[in-house]
Design a protein that fits this description.
Distance between the termini of chain A: 70 Å
Radius of gyration of chain B: 29 Å
Structural class of chain B: alpha+beta
Largest interface: A-B, 86 and 92 residues
Largest sheet of chain B: 8 strands, antiparallel
Strand content of chain B: 15-25%
GO biological process, one term (chain A): response to stress
Oligomer: heterodimer
CATH architecture of the largest domain in chain A: Orthogonal Bundle
Largest sheet of chain A: none
InterPro entries (chain A): RNA_pol_sigma-70-like, RNA_pol_sigma-70_dom, RNA_pol_sigma70_ECF_CS, RNA_pol_sigma70_r2, RNA_pol_sigma70_r4_t2, RNA_pol_sigma_r2, RNA_pol_sigma_r3/r4-like, WH-like_DNA-bd_sf
CATH class of the largest domain in chain A: Mainly Alpha
Number of strands of chain A: 0
Order of helices and strands of chain B: HHHHHHEEEEHEEEEHHEEEEHEEEE
Strand order of the largest sheet of chain B: 1-2-3-4-8-7-6-5
Helix content of chain B: 25-40%
Number of helices of chain A: 9
Number of helices of chain B: 10
Keywords (chain A): DNA-binding, Sigma factor, Transcription, Transcription regulation
Shape of chain A: elongated
GO molecular function (chain A): DNA binding; sigma factor activity
CATH superfamily of the largest domain in chain A: RNA polymerase sigma factor, region 2, helix turn helix motif
CATH topology of the largest domain in chain A: Rna Polymerase Sigma Factor, Chain: A
Helix content of chain A: over 70%
Radius of gyration of chain A: 18 Å
Protein name (chain A): RNA polymerase sigma factor
Number of strands of chain B: 16
Order of helices and strands of chain A: HHHHHHHHH
Structural class of chain A: mainly alpha
Chain lengths: ~170, ~425
């Protein structure tokens, strides 16, 4: 099988996983171009894939780096004046808008979005994507122990955030 | 409010919806993959950390590029009128608190666009709806609605809490909370419509006049207006009442039906509530809390009801505020509770005249910071303090803000001197 066919097979099998990861990771639905980038990058560097990890884990690693690159470029874009930005305003909807998440899911989604990057990454991979600590460790290039500890702290932070949100909603008893 | 376990939270996260790409787009990407000639592409070491070390160079190039684009864009934008409609500059979740400032894209963007009108127009509407017992954008009214009806139309609430002797059900997505009594009658409706954030206390005063009373709790200032003889509006502003009215930003408002929050089975009248407060005070307790001054340690209370929202220390006494419970616990260095304050909404319907009639003349009266404080010595050790929002005026028009049960001996610092 040639490289293009291998990547095509992987695309058919894993594109939705990569898409979901990128939507949650970037908070934007408009990530099809990033998905394409991920598979083209994989195609270019297939030789470096040593088969030690699952293709899905490897693709997620590429997806994460692609998203980080994208965020960096976006940061550069943010230096540009508002008027210019208005012309390139994306009309993409955020996941909660597309998916009509019910309120509790929306609160959870928002809580995950508001976490610091390390917490958010581990929550998306371990929590939302349901990967094992080992797979998550491979993608993030961390030790399994670090994944577990960070996940524990991230869950605690999410719970605190959700409790705070709930209190804010009811407000004061006045 | 019980917190979720780790397993529950993990399940909730796994339960977040799956997302699938559009089939056409997939087909397009497959075609791109098929037609990509790998030999003509520069090789990349994907997913290798080393790859990012090269980013420094890229970043430098990007910076130059960005600067060029920026200069070009500035030139272009200075020379042409933008045709973009007024747009929000970011749709990043979580950025709602910041005021985005005048919207970009208007032809004459140099002059700040007046942002208030749309929100200021809300105030007459808020008043008109409140006279009918409603909050804006919500079809239900206090007094007339049974919560069952809301649940039938809107489905189950996202969560339910107890406070003020009422049950509060929250519809988070709609930004609406209903408070209802034991008969399921809705007596309190709260909204945090995002448009409210553009209003401040100054605008509210201009549109609605001076409030009937101004109180403060947990760092928020509350303006209460009696819109009819039955219904009240409470505007809750972020900030202390000492701040300038223009700096007090509206965070939410309630339409409240005080009469509906009287549990006639438990308290036939305000006099019954006052007698109950006096009886509780003799035992070192206050309305809406089972804990006692002198006897209880704050450590134990915290274990049972969780962490406070606000902690402040003053003269060696620590004050812990529970916003949703309307309670403040103060404790000394030995963690002994010395002061408990209740801001229960039921108290706030009781006038000074009723207090005088039921509890008689206080042992001491003081006025401070716009408040009148009545002190009753209920036992040799405990004092019941009743704080009214306002000074002077007719006793029928002055209402309770909060009540304290106070243990003066516990506030003496035995360690000092």
């Amino acid at each position: 099988m040639d490289k293009n066919s291998i990547i095509e097979q992987w695309f058919l099998r894993y594109s939705d996983d990569i898409y979901k990861f990128l939507v949650y990771y970037t908070g934007n639905k408009d990530v099809e171009d990033l998905v394409q980038d991920v598979f083209l990058k994989a195609l270019r560097s297939l030789e470096s894939f040593e088969g030690r990890s699952q293709p899905k884990t490897w693709l997620l690693t590429i997806a994460r780096h692609t998203a980080i690159d994208f965020a960096r470029k976006n940061r550069l874009r943010n230096w540009l004046p508002d008027k210019w930005l208005a012309g390139v305003q994306s009309e993409a909807k955020t996941p909660e808008e597309i998916l009509h998440l019910h309120a509790e899911q929306q609160a959870l989604y928002q809580a995950v979005r508001k976490m610091k990057p390390a917490y958010r990454e581990v929550l998306i991979l371990r929590g939302i994507k349901g990967l094992s600590p080992k797979e998550t460790a491979e993608i993030l290039d961390w030790s399994e122990n670090k994944v577990n500890v960070t996940m524990h702290r991230a869950m605690k932070a999410v719970k605190e955030h959700l409790m705070q949100d709930r209190k804010e909603m009811v407000g004061d008893a006045i | 409010m019980p917190s979720k376990t780790d397993d529950q939270l993990l399940n909730d996260m796994k339960g977040l919806p799956d997302m699938k790409m559009n089939q056409d787009k997939k087909q397009e990407i497959i075609s791109t993959i098929r037609s990509t000639d790998t030999h003509s592409l520069p090789k990349q070491t994907a997913a290798s950390p080393g790859r990012f070390s090269a980013l420094g160079k890229g970043l430098a190039v990007c910076s130059v590029l960005a600067a060029t684009i920026w200069m070009g864009a500035t030139l272009i934008s200075n020379n042409q009128q933008s045709t973009m409609p007024e747009s929000i500059t970011s749709n990043t979740p979580g950025s709602t608190s910041a005021s985005p400032g005048p919207a970009a894209g208007k032809g004459n963007a140099v002059t700040p666009a007046p942002v208030q009108p749309q929100s200021e127009q809300l105030l007459p509407l808020i008043r008109k709806d409140a006279e009918k017992g409603k909050v804006i954008e919500v079809p239900y009214s206090v007094e007339q609605t049974v919560f069952d009806q809301v649940e039938k139309d809107w489905g189950k609430p996202d969560h339910t809490d107890q406070a003020n002797g009422l049950t509060y059900s929250t519809y988070a997505k709609r930004g609406v909370v209903f408070g209802y009594n034991k008969g399921m009658q809705v007596v309190d409706i709260r909204t945090n419509d995002p448009r409210l954030a553009k209003l401040n206390a100054d605008m509210v005063e201009k549109a609605m006049g001076k409030p009937g009373r101004i109180s403060e709790f947990a760092g928020k200032t509350i303006y209460t207006y009696d819109v009819t003889d039955k219904y009240q509006i409470k505007f809750i502003f972020q900030g202390k009442k000492t701040a300038s009215a223009k700096d007090l930003v509206l965070v939410r408002y309630n339409v409240y039906y005080p009469q509906g929050n009287k549990n006639l089975m438990l308290y036939g009248s305000n006099a019954d509530i006052l007698q109950s407060i006096r009886d509780l005070a003799k035992n070192g307790q206050t309305f809406g809390s089972e804990y006692r001054v002198e006897k209880d340690l704050f450590d134990d209370i915290e274990k049972q009801i969780g962490k406070p929202d606000i902690v402040a220390t003053f003269n060696g006494i620590t004050y812990n505020t529970y916003m949703d419970k309307g309670l403040v616990f103060a404790f000394n260095k030995g963690m002994q509770v010395v002061d408990i304050r209740s801001y229960d909404a039921r108290l706030q319907a009781i006038s000074q005249a009723e207090v005088l009639q039921t509890l008689g003349k206080p042992n001491n009266v003081t006025t401070t910071a716009g408040e009148t404080i009545y002190t009753y010595k209920v036992t040799p050790d405990y004092e019941l303090k009743i704080i009214f929002s306002g000074t002077g005026g007719k006793p029928e028009k002055l209402y309770i803000d909060h009540v304290n049960i106070y243990y003066p001996r516990g506030t003496i610092n035995n360690m000092a001197g």
